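call fold(seq) -> tokens
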Amino acid sequence: MEQNNHVRVTVDGVDYRYPCGTPYKTIAEDLQVQYPYKILLVNRNGKLCELCKPVDRDCTLRMVTAVEKPGIQTYERSAVLLMLKAFYDVAGREQVDRITVEYSISHALFVRAAGRFTLDRGLLERVEARMRELAAQALPIQKHSVNTGDAVDFFQKAGMPDKAQLLSCRISSHVNLYTLDDFTDYFYGYMVPDTGYLTCFGLELYEDGFVLRLPEQADPTRLAAFQPSAKVFRALHDASDRAMSMGISTVGELNSVISEGQATQMILAREAMMEKEIGDIAQEIAARKNVRFVMIAGPSSSGKTTFSHRLSTQLIACGLRPHPIATDNYFKNREDTPRDENGQYDFEGLAAMDVEQFNADMSRLLRGETVELPRYNFIKGVREYHGDMLTLGPQDILVIEGIHCLNEAFTHALPAESKYKIYISCLTTLNVDDHNRIPTTDARLLRRIERDARTRGYGARATIRMWPSVRRGEERNIFPYQDSADRIFNSALIYETALLRPYVEPLLFGVPRDCEEYVEAKRLLKFLSYSLPLPADDVPKTSLLREFIGGGCYQV
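ret:
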């Protein structure tokens, strides 16, 4: 530590000196001119810190803006607090029964509000105006540590039983609450220091609620385009309604079910609901007499493989003979595979597929010809043929899985009536509480971390490091085609966070503190800590989750 009670702060290789106790906000303001976007957090020696926190030691800082994941998450969280405060101010606290921030759709958060008011354009315009008024005042968002028992009592009296229920299962003696003016709430992540940081937002009526529109990560100074997928929204909305009807829409409610010994019945009920939906899809396919190709696509860790097996079983029950086809067998030979801008093989783009050979083989099968199907040798990087002959009879149907299965360019030669398209994704609607959502991407990442460790020998650090690249591929090759599906299948199971915790938690603790992935690992650990652990004993061998934790009856 420097003399005269000063500390040395190093940013981008440059040393600065500040009095001990100087808020990071002051340092960020001094250096803001060097950054194109507003600094929202600092990373101090690998640990994220809010700007209200004082510097108390020599350290190396890295400024975090909303172009990074922790930054945009902080902005979103703070904007939710601002929206809640403004809504209560405009509608009247005593008139509001419940506000639920449910899930993300197209760079916006879908919100439902219930109470003695009319949710219309006029009300939302007043709420947004109040948000802008509060933002202009740069009111402090104050963080304070409270005894957990006192916090439970506070939220019970404040009419937020979801938060009281959640915190009642917390082992820690204290929790952090955030107060904006006269409104206090609980959030499980970092916040900006004051409302002046929140300049880019908008409210818009949507379906039976409204959306809080937010900036895009690539450019935090402007609102992202709001172009929601109607089919995905409907799947999320229906799943949310089912969860509410079962009384399990938050982690606190799930914890109560587990602690009261009712987990087995919950698991069996949810699995039965999923099996019924798969059976309904099979019946719909069987009723379409011209369908010969079931095309299945979805993002990573959606459970595509297990779903295709379970769907095949249901198709057999409908009198059909399903045959699995993996589109990976139609990769181009390695020497013909295109490379990305970094010179690496681009296996995810459509150009990596032998589209014409796939269409030729499928067209011949459709005409009743016998076709020898290829197998791709990933070690040699070539397609090989081993006498896998197939001829389609009247009851035969192909179940084809691959990232491009919804893209018409991939199946351009096949008649539309011969294809039944399914988009599958883990669209979780379970949230931490009414105001803290669980992103669907987090649910998939947890699945992937466990599966990678179990089947590929990857540690959590490697999976977290690869995840942004995986997500970019999904944005390019899968999401643009999701609304072309005949059916959206939601593979999320309400209990999976509790089930995955005992598997994933030790893997996340294995991420070293001195690496870039530690920040994300720590966030996921915090998120998992809210759920009571759930043993896998009662999870059926046919469950989609067995694809990730093992012990299933399918070869996946």
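The chain has three domains: 6-65, 71-228, 236-549.
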